[in-house]
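hi!! sorry for the late reply, been swamped w classes. u asked for the two structures so here they r. pasted raw, havent cleaned anything up. first the sequence of the first protein and right below it the tokens
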Amino acid sequence: MASIVLPKGFTYVIASAFSPVWVLIWQSTKVAQARSAAGIKYPQLHAEKAEAEAARNAHVFNCVQRAHQNTLESLPIAVIGTLVTGLRFPILAASLVGTWTLARVLYTRGYATGDPDERTYPGGALTAVVQFALALAGTWTVGEFVWAELQ
């Protein structure tokens, strides 16, 4: 039976890569609460434009729903970047995804105010910086592995 040897410190990577699960649960709860307050019935994904313009609760629902959706859209970048980077730089990877998770909380809290501009700073800006760092670190890690194979 083959075995896999993980680098020292990879436990931190696993623990931090799991942290977005709790953010997604929290966001799902916020979406459900906002949906209920706005009276938006399933399976409607968002309040229609007329609904959102007529009722603040419907507009806030759209903002909360969009924050959750955006997190789901960016999650693969964060998780793949973390797991790949963690193979070579576990502490860096764990720190970056932990920061990404915190940034998603700030992003959601800002967006949930109903003012879409509130999502940008600090949550949206921090998310963008961390995702770029994870992409760079992941690319560097892949490059190191490929280079080692070529030697």
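now the second protein. again sequence first, tokens right under
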Amino acid sequence: MEWMAWTLPTALFFSAIGCLLLGMTLLELRKPCVERRGFLPIATTRGDRLFIGLLVSAYLHLLVIGGGDWNIWVASLLSLVWLLVVMRWG
């Protein structure tokens, strides 16, 4: 594991994703969802919206790490806000 840069932001990011996946699994087992339309141009389920939110979050982090001067915590905060917006209104 020495080849990977496990910093606190990295560990928190992947821990949060794991908790999200566990929570979504438990929620889906307890209350199955149906597709709905929001501001996204397609009908989506909760899992679809989570995937879209995580994908955009990953690209945002890569953009900040690779070519930005922002702090990684700014990217994490923006990703959290994006994820909440997509999950609620997407």
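hope this helps!! also noticed smth abt the second:
The chain is about 70% helix and 0% strand.
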